[in-house]
Specification:
Blueprint (H helix, E strand, L loop, with lengths): L1 H17 L4 E7 L3 E8 L13 H10 L3 E5 L6 E8 L10
Antiparallel strand pairs: 1-2, 2-4, 3-4
Length: 95
């Protein structure tokens, strides 16, 4: 469920804030991890430290033992790179 939430929230943020013309979602799994990469070509400048909704997203990901990295230079779009452990009670099919 966490993977679904991450993608849903990221797409909502793109629609609300990014002014993007394209967004790409990549999902990859192995025996240990679900990896998500959500990238847009929008305005960039997203910063979890400024109190945005990315804080809640980061907290949820870290609550599963996962990691979330945000790359978002102004004018260059935003990338969310997420790793979620499969052994945290989720299977790749359920994510």
């Amino acid at each position: 469920m966490t993977a679904y939430y991450v993608v849903s929230e990221a797409l909502t943020n793109v629609a609300k804030h990014a002014n993007a013309s394209a967004v790409e979602v990549d999902v990859d799994t192995d025996d240990r991890l679900v990896r998500l990469a959500i990238r847009d070509d929008g305005v960039g400048g997203a910063d979890p430290a400024r109190g945005s909704g990315l804080i809640g997203l980061k907290d949820r990901v870290e609550g599963t033992g996962g990691t979330l990295r945000v790359e978002s230079r102004p004018g260059e779009g935003t990338s969310l790179l997420v790793e979620l452990p499969i052994d945290a009670g989720e299977s790749p099919d359920a994510s």
